[in-house]
Amino acid sequence: MLQLRAGRGYTLIELMVGVAILGSLVAVGIPNMTNWVVANKAKAASEFYLEGLSMARRQAVTHNARSRFVLTPGSNGQFDWQVDLCFPAPGNPCTDNAGNWSTTTAASSGDPEGAAGFRSVLRAAASLPSSNLLIPTVAPDGANAVYYTELGWVDTTIPDRLAQLRLDPSAALAEDVRAAAVAVTLAGMASKCDPAVSAPDSRACPP
């Protein structure tokens, strides 16, 4: 008569070996995954700023108004950005130090749509890698804003306009992330460029 043998279980030693192997895989995998996520966020950082500059130009043309793109220091050392609108009128010149600009809680007083008009858009850079990993610099030094006319051109009457925002990886990311920049032309067009190459390479940043 045949007898069924009970299934053989795992010994304590086999279980401990399995746990050790799993622990090793986790120890290697988690740092690699973390580095991969950070590197991808760093690569996408230029898109974050390009979005804001493109929005500022688009809103100026759409609303036939003046707009501005303003950088402010964020909590992680990167720059938050905000897009504001202003409608020129007598006594409301819409310059860097005068004019009734929109805020995140209220439309500009000159907005044809009144209180229901455009409210400023604020984007925080909290999701970007910290400035210890991705180093931001602006050109010219100290610049923090771009002002647009109703036609979407840069308002050259306002001095010290932001011409370029550069993002350089730290040594920890240098193998996985290239330096990148966002440049703004006088025509108001913002585009990504590569500060590591020179003209006539089409990827080069404007002089």
From TrEMBL:
Annotated TM spans: 12-30
Protein name, UniProt field: Type II secretion system protein
PROSITE patterns the UniProt entry points to: PROKAR_NTER_METHYL
NCBIfam families: IV_pilin_GFxxxE (TIGR02532)
InterPro entries xrefs: N_methyl_site, Pilin-like
Keywords carried by this UniProt record: Membrane, Transmembrane, Transmembrane helix
Pfam families: N_methyl (PF07963)
Secreted keyword on record: no
